[in-house]
Each structure stands twice: as structure tokens, then as C-alpha cells.
Amino acid sequence: MQSVTLQTHNGVAVVVVNNPPVNALSWHVRQGLQDSFSAALADEAIKAIVLRCDGTTFIAGADITEFGKPPQGPDFNSVLNMIEASAKPVVAAIHGTALGGGLETALVCHYRIAVPSAKLGVPEVKLGLLPGAGGTQRLPRVVGIEAAATMCSLGEPVPAVKAEAMGLVDRLAGEESLAEDAAAYARELISAGPRPTRERPVTGDAAVIEQLKTANARKWKGFEAPYANLACIEAATRLPFEEGLKFERTEFLKLMGGSQSAAQRHMFFAERQAAKIDGLAKDLPLRNVKKVGVIGAGTMGGGISMNFLAKGIPVTIVEMVQENLDRGVGVIRKNYETSAAKGRFTTEQVEGMMGILTPSLSLDDLADCDLIIEAVYESMDVKKDVFGKLDTICKPGAILASNTSYLNIDEIAASTSRPQDVIGMHFFSPANVMKLLEVVRGEKTADDVLATAMALGKKIGKVAVVAGVCHGFIGNRMLSTRQAPAMQLLLEGATPAQIDKVHTDFGMPMGPFQMSDLAGLDIGWHRDPSRIETIRDALCAAGRFGQKNRKGFYDYDEKRVGTPSEEALSIIEEFRATSNLPKREISDQEIVERTLYPMVNEGYKILEEGKAQRASDIDVVWIYGYGWPIYRGGPMFWGDLEGAGKIVEALERHGVKAADSLKAKA
Ligand code: T1G
Q: N or C: which end of the chain has fewer CB within 10 A?
């Protein structure tokens, strides 16, 4: 199949790229562009050239699958320089998403025409990269420093209408007449005189560069690429074009050769791979979910409901007590109104979403729902009781899902006469914010139920991952392997702040003790202050429950900002003394080995037991469920970078049994 074809219509050449699914600039596309433009430039009869794409989108970037492999086909920059040097006007006709190398290709065309629905952007920063084909030098010359710096460092696309206002697009085409409008525009340009060249001046105020750094300091903590992008923009403000290109090239190669880009590119594909269910026919008919029932209007039930309402899917939310139902509905409205105040929704949209929420005090009102998700108290007895009732109430074919975070889905399914319709849909708190959804496949879960839950997860904006039935599924099971050693390290002399700092320096949003304070130390506490068997017991006995009452491992101010607590440290010290363990200096490296390596080890066990489909799914769970720094690529990717041998040696030195598959890798 020809990736690029050249057609000519009375004096105007049309170069058409056709490389599904996103017209990536694979080597054969670059070859085709080079051949087609050479031919068009050499043909006297051709007076102007249009570059456009078949399929759903204009070129969406370099072919990421080619990175890290030996280069093939013509060099991207040489193809771009040929286009830009053309003596004949070249028009880029844009639809879909002109991204990365795609936008860079459009930038070397002299003019750009786009349909209103198109988007243009340079998302390379999200891959730990920067536009490496002149984008950081051409953009500031077309749209000015402010827009170029923002586009490159944040990586968000710009809608065509805004792009036209910014001068990134010269003309808007009819939504259905791009090809014709582009050809007409090209014909117009034949006699339009000199074309814009790369030597345009860079305009705008470079102050935006520091402003972006200040505004995004937290978000960019640990990341290299945003700063490299801004360095290139800054270079464009003071270097001649050719020098700027060289600067950009150097910065690009630094990023391309680094571990952060490798990690973020790994995650680009990992996130897409997670949506695939091995062994299932791709076109399996899904169950139609038009109406959702949610049981429980607490934090989870409310958050879960919001995901569906925001996508226009009606929800019936059921509580047992009017007061709890009213509170839950009130929290949903308040959350939407808060988002509306930030401009995320209009008030009409808020009313629209609230309008398709039906509060109820009776499970019977779930009879016509296609999917019911229970988010009731985390007790097997309670869940079995609820599923038993659902079995009699819900219509045949309804999907019965539990939001349990670790209980056995098979056991829950056994309390119904339809285990094939039972599945786990484990949302992460806050459920309307966190992107991860663990879809827990029971022994008897039907394939179409699994496929429907995964597709629905994507539809409501989640990153869904298939998990097998085991205690804690994937994420919480690995999390628990970190908690015990973290507590043990306190007994041996480390402080909560030291251990948490190792984790936040690593790039986690918070460490084990900050997380415990957030969740609440009294979760699962036996409530007997005289029974003190663990450090948590000791803290709870002293009334230190965590953020909820502003004292846990840390003290918290009214903004919930934590600071080390003398009282907590003395309680820990007192408890530590009863364990007659000698107090010793503990290195940060030992904390990594004893709290992060066991998580990698557990990931290998999860794969051995078939509770995750692939290692990259485990990475997806940790990045989208727990905020693992994406520039490290997830626990399994990071474990490979650390080295299996190094991990096995450390685990065994600390008395932890290494998984067979991890040892085999070592
Ligand atoms: N290269 C290779 N494959 C790609 C690809 C790419 N750039 N983009 C998407 N795919 C695959 C993807 O893996 C999936 O494969 C299928 O296409 C559909 O993707 C020099 C160095 C364009 C908005 O970062 O943002 O240019 O799973 O599921 O939801 O300066 O894909 O079907 O086998 O995402 O409709 C810069 C990345 C590259 C854009 C479409 N460009 N892509 O979204 O489909 S670096 C990007 C996207 C660069 C230059 C630099 C999205 C999309 P499969 P999809 P979608």
C-alpha cells in the first residue's frame, strides 16, 4: 500500500498521506513525502502544492514505535527542509489532530488551512520529549513566545478556531470541504508573491517562561522535559534560526537518550495496551448500558455516580436512610458546583447532570438498571446480603458490580444465581477524580460482561485494567507489601518523615505515613485503647486518627498541611522501647530496598498467579491509581531499570523471599 500518493489537478499538486491509524511519520511516509515533493517541485506544470491526509487525522506525529530502533528511510529534518525551501507555495490541509511531527510538518508548509474541528499541538513533552524537528524554533516565529512556550511545555492541543486567531492557521475550511477549499486556497496563492520564510522574527514577551515554571513547579517536580522545552523556546528568543535548531537538536537527543522519555513512551503504549483483553474476540458484542444504579451515597457511591452523570448516563442512587441519601446527593451537587465555579461546567450542565440523578431509598428502584455498582460498607456479609437482594430485583442481563477494594468477587458472585453477570469495578478515591479503574474478573464472569465493563470504563474517562481475584487485586495488594516494612523501619529507628521523604523524593505524591493519615489510622482499629499491639494502636489509643482529627503520624493545620508531631514521635519511641530493638541510623537506600523493592517483587507474584495480564498493566495501575511518577514508568518498568539482580540481592539481604520469576530474570 502506498503511504503517500501524488495527484495533480490543473496545476495544483496534492500530496496525500495514508498511513493508518494516525498517519504517523513512519520511515515509508518520510520516503513518500520526499519522493512526492521532489516530483512536484520538478514538474513545471505544477504551480502549487497541497499536503493532506486520508483517514481520521492529519499527521499525528513521528512514529513512536520507531524510537530506539536503527533509523530507516530519509531523515525527518531533511524532508522538512525540502518542503520549506519550495519555490512553489505549499499548503497544509489539516483535519483531526496535527500533533508533534505532524504540526512541525505543517509549520514548514508555507500556509495552513484547517477544518474548525481540527486540533493542533506539540504533545512531545508528554512523552518526555520536545518537538525535535524545528517545532521549538518555528512555533515562536509563527505564534509568538507566549503561545509557543505554553504549547510546548504543557503539550495541550489548540482548537483550529483558536489556532486561526493566533496565526497558527491561516484559514478555516468548511468542515466537509477541506480538500476543495485547500486546492482553491493553493491556486489563490500561486500569484500571492513571496511566501513566509523561517527567518520570521520571534515576537512576544519571554517573561512567560519563568511564569510557566512558577505556575507549574509542583506539577513538573522531577520532570526534565518541560524545562528542556522552555530552554529551547528561550534559545529561539536569542539565537539565529540555524543556531536555535542546533540547540534544539542537542536538547532533543538528551531527552531521547534519557530514562524519563523511555518511561513515558512505555506508558503511552502501556495505557493503550491495558484496554486490550487477551484471548477475547475484539468485536465481541457488548451489553447496552443505558441506565446505572449505584448503591451507597457515601464518598465512593457519590464519586462513582458523578462519572456516569458527567457522560449523560442516568443514575439511580440508593441509600438506606433519607439523611444519608440527602447528604450524598448534596455532596454531588456541591462538587459539580465547585467545578462549575472553576469553569469546567456551565450551570446548565450542572442542572442537566443533577436532572438525571434519581435518589431512592429502595433497591427495588434498580429493577430497570443495566449496571448496578454497590459501594456499601466493606464487609463480606453486607455485600453478600446486597447481592442476594439484587439477584431477585434486577432484570436478566443486568451487570452486578462490586466496588470492593479487596474482597473476593467469586464469593460475592456465589451469593447470586447469576455469577456470570458479577464483576468487580474498583474505583479509586476520589472516584470522580482518580483515573484508575480495576475491573476484577471473577472465575465465572462472562466475557461480554468483562468487555462491557472495560469499554464503559474508557467511556467515563477512566484507565481500566483487568485484575484477577486476590486480596487487594493489583494495586492494594502491592501497597500492603510496603506498609509492614515501613512500620518495622519505625521500630528500628527511622522516623515517619524520613520514610515519607524517601517516597516523595522518589516522586510519589505522598509516603506511606502521609497516606495512612489521609485514609485514617482508625480504619480497622479494634477501638480498645487498652489493647496496644502496634504503633497504629498506640496512636489511635492516644486519639490520633490522622487528617480527619488533625493529628496522626503528623499534626495538621486547618489547611490539612502536615508537620512532624512531637507527641506522635514520643508515642512511637515509647512503643519502640517495648520492642527492645536497638535504635539505629537507617539509610534512605535501605528504605527504598525495604519499601519499594517488595512492591516490585509482589508485581512478579501477581503475574505468576495470572492476576494481571501483563507487567505494563501493573505499571498503569500504579501511575493512574497511586500517582507513581510517570517519568519512572511504573514499578515493573522501574524494577527493570534498577535491575532484577540488584533487587533480588537486596530482598534476600532483608530476609524477603524473591518471586521465582524475578529470580529467573536476575
Ligand atoms: N506513533 C505510533 N503509533 C501511534 C502514534 C504515534 N505517534 N499515535 C497513536 N498511535 C497508535 C496507538 O498506539 C494506537 O495503536 C493507535 O495508534 C490509535 O491511537 C519529531 C519526536 C493521535 C490523539 O504524541 O495522542 O512527533 O492500540 O488509541 O484515542 O517532534 O493517538 O490501535 O495498536 O491513541 O483516536 C508526537 C500521540 C510523537 C501523538 C489519537 N505525537 N498520539 O487518539 O487513538 S513524537 C504524539 C495521540 C514526535 C517529533 C516528535 C493519539 C491521537 P493500537 P489511540 P485515539
A: N
pLDDT confidence of residue 200 = 85
pLDDT mean over 407-415: 97
443 is known as an active-site residue: no
How far apart are the CA of 63 and the centre of ligand 1, in A?
A: 8
CATH homologous superfamily for the domain 292-471: NAD(P)-binding Rossmann-like Domain (3.40.50.720)
Biggest CA-to-CA distance, the chain? 95
Ligand 1: which atom is nearest the Cα of residue 135? 30
Nearest CA to ligand 1 atom 31: 22
Please work out whether the CB of residue 408 comes within 6 Å of at least one atom of ligand 1.
no
Q: How confident is the model at residue 357 (pLDDT cuts 50, 70, 90)?
A: very high
Of the residues 66, 84, 104, 378, only one is catalytic, namely: 104
For cell 437482594, the residue is 389
pLDDT in tens, 135-180: 999 999 999 999 999 999 999 999 999 999 999 999 999 999 999 9
Q: What's the CA-to-centroid distance between 268 and ligand 1, angstroms?
A: 8
Minimum-distance ligand 1 atom for the alpha carbon of 56: 35
**Residue 62 Cβ < 6 Å to ligand 1:** yes
- CA 148 to ligand 1 center in whole angstroms: 21
Asked if the model's pLDDT at residue 224 lies above 80, the reply is yes
> What pLDDT does residue 578 have?
87
Question: What order do you get walking across the sheet with 90-94 strand by strand?
Answer: 4-9, 12-17, 48-53, 90-94, 111-114, 171-172
Across the chain, mean pLDDT equals 96
| CATH top class, domain 4-257 | alpha beta
Question: Alpha-carbon dihedral of residues 512, 513, 515, 519, nearest 10 degrees?
Answer: 130
Those residues whose C-beta lies under 8 Å from the C-beta of residue 659, and which sit 6 or more positions away, are: 601, 602, 604, 605, 608
Q: How far is the CA of 306 from the CAs of 295, 324, 387, in angstroms?
A: 13, 17, 22
Tell me the three cell numbers of residue 23.
Answer: 498517519
Tell me how far apart the alpha carbons of residues 297 and 303 are, in angstroms, rounded to a whole number: 9
For the chain, domain boundaries:
4-257, 292-471, 494-583
121 lines ligand 1 (CB under 6 A): no
Q: Is 409 in the pocket of ligand 1 (CB under 6 A)?
A: no
Instruction: Tell me if 63 CB under 6 Å of ligand 1.
Output: yes
Q: Is 135 in the pocket of ligand 1 (CB under 6 A)?
A: yes
- What is the 3-class SS of 587-635, one letter each residue? CHHHHHHHHCHHHHHHHHHHHHCCCECCHHHHHHHHHHHHCCCHHHCCH
Q: How far is Cα 357 from Cα 302, in angstroms, rounded to an integer?
A: 11
Domain 494-583 has CATH 3.10.100.10: no
Residue 282 — pLDDT band, cuts 50, 70, 90? confident
Q: How many CB atoms lie within 10 A of CB 387?
A: 24
Helix (H) or strand (E) run with residue 147 in it: helix 145-154
Q: Which of 44, 66, 84, 124 is catalytic?
A: 124
Q: Is there a shared CATH topology between the 4-257 domain and the 292-471 domain?
A: no
Q: How far is the CA of 368 from the centre of ligand 1 (A)?
A: 39
